[in-house]
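hi! just following up on the protien thing from before. the input was this:
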Amino acid sequence: MKPTKMRNKMIHRATNVARSRQVGAALSKDLQKKYKKHSVRITVGDSIKIVRGEFAGVDGKVSKVSVENGTIAIEGLKKEKSKGDKFDVYIHASNVIITSLNTENWWRIARLEGKNPKETDLRESRTEDAAPEDEVDEDDDEQDDEQDGEKPDKEVRAEERKAIADEKRLAEQKRTEQKKQKDKKRQEKPPKEEDAEDYDDYEEDDD
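and the predicted 3d structure came back as:
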């Protein structure tokens, strides 16, 4: 393949998947030893350090990622216009290194650790730490509601769902009854006089 075609395929006519893969940066030496990888894709929340360009030496957290241009915006890094307005400065992903990863995405961390993200054990292990706190909070809320004389949220939601189901059932019954009444009226309705005369004329012609 010619270099021009390759360049067009990878840059100018690249798909969204190819562009997303290009928004990657090298890891710091500590992260390379920990995850045994040289580079990863940058996501919002990662801490990076600029190593080349006008803002070399600046570090901060990624606030925005532009997949189309392969650039990122950093919190607090802005330029000022002549009128006084400020705007974000976008740095190309190849000019930075990642010093700290955003670990909120358990799928991403599992891939970096060399594990299979589809395993249910990983999901449970990620949610086990937060589950007890949530349960305690719900129990506390229910106890507070009972002390105040109010129903817990679960009972209120159940009653609302039951009321909505009852309304739907009554509306369906009403529609079926109306349909039956219309069908009954059509059957009981006598034929028109014009139709009866036409039928008599048709019988006379046959004779």
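Residues 155-183 form one domain.
Residues 153-188 form the longest helix (36 residues).
cheers
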